[in-house]
Every structure is written in C-alpha cells, then in structure tokens.
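JOB MANIFEST
job_type = single_chain_structure
chain_count = 1
residues = 92
[input]
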Amino acid sequence: MPLPRGLLEEMEERHAAESLQADRDRLRDFARTALECVGWCALGMLCVAWSLHTTDVLYGQFAFWGGLGIGNGGWIFSVLAAYRRGERRGDW
C-alpha cells in the first residue's frame, strides 16, 4: 500500500531540510579545519623565523625543530580530528 501523498510530501520536505543542514555542518567543519591548518602552519613558521633571529644556538635549534614539529604535526592533527568528526556525523 503506497503512502498518502501528503505524508510523502512532508517526508520529502523534512529530508530536504535535514540534507541542507548536514551540508552546512560539513562545510562549516571544513572551514574550521582549514583555518586550524593555516594557524598551525603560521605558528610553525613563526617559530622557525624566531630561530633565525635568536643569538643563542641552543634556543635557535630548539625553535627551529619545534617549529617544524608544530607546523607539520599541527595540520595533521587537525585533519585527523576533522576525519573523526565526519565519521561521527556519518559523512563518510
């Protein structure tokens, strides 16, 4: 027995609204992840730049390698966190 036309239209409208909200949530999460990646890379570059201007060799090496670790590890952490959030939401 087919569904009544009014019920079918109501279900379609609700599905369209939920789909639109899911797309907005996914886009907002992607934008947040992109900003986090830019922030981590900027912080890493700041540390590397500071290592070039310091006069102490030990502080320079610490800042250089720390900047590389922050810049590379930070965006990887952000992308993996976005993947976990997408898994929980059911994006993929």
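[summary]
The chain has one domain: 5-89.
The chain is about 90% helix and 0% strand.
exit_status = 0
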